[in-house]
Amino acid sequence: MQRARFSGRQRIILGLLVLVAGTGMALAGWMYAVFLAPNIQLRTEQDLLFIPTGATYPQVLDSLAIRGFLKDKRRFERVASLLDYPRLVKPGKYRIRAGMSNLQLVRLVRSGQQEPVKLTLHQARTVEELAGKMAARLEPDSAEILEAFVRLRDFAPDIPLGEDSALCLVIPNTYEVWWNISPSGILDRLWKENQRFWHAERLEKAKRIGLTPVQVYILASIVEKETRVNAEKSTLAGVYLNRLRIGMPLQADPTVVFALGDFSRERVLHSDLSFDSPYNTYLYNGLPPGPICMPEINSIQAVLEAEQHEYLYFCARADNSGAHVFARTLEAHAANARRFRKWLDEKGILR
User: Which DSSP helix (H) or strand (E) runs through 49?
Assistant: First the structure.
């Protein structure tokens, strides 16, 4: 069998083809290694990268290095440069996944496609506490958020809220927001939720019981702290509305606890009732100037749909149920109160 013979020119062409093929394979390998090969290492399947507002490209590199995300920093920088990322840094919270390539990571942070924050707001006692809970999940600090609440009238001049009642803006819910949302953006989000909540039907129910939405919220906060039994909330709300109608002080122990600022108390003593505060509903008639907590929606609904009855008094049951016994007369209430105080003494609950 004869071997194929090549002319000199054919050998040159063949050599060039081999060289081009080899160069192409080398280039393809380099491009794969730089652009497409996994370059992210994580201890878990996914992690988060936070890029603060105003951060520069070198600061992003520092964050990636500190977190140990990059296997090969130089390859990442090459892709970032080719895609013009140093000029297009966008702040936010980004979900980083194990095995991502440089191309995937650069495209993610360059696009600004953040991972949203699910911000659950409930059970805060004060605006200060609420601001702290927000700051723990978002970029703005608590002082910035609190300052925005103080400027609430500038934000929404038509809302009848003072500094004491600013918490009334917040409807308990889980809000989906961006990590780097501004303080004014937070208020805007809360205001929109507030407007959705107070639709025509709820406004009509509030009007029917003679209260504004803010007053409903304040009363609901007292109901919230007065009982943990949902089934009796509307009954209890009816008691307070009866007292308001006849000008009787609300005499709500939770308002005294709020005024004292000791939220760990389980028992209000007679000496506590003389503590001078606009929140002490034993000393001052009507509703306090603001809510004593963020009530759950079922407490707000309980006020709007308060039970109609003739009860003026209620007292905690002498057991661990958290429920109450209701009375129409002061005499019947006094008997219920004696039983409850005796039970507290036997349990050794002094405060």
Answer: strand 46-51
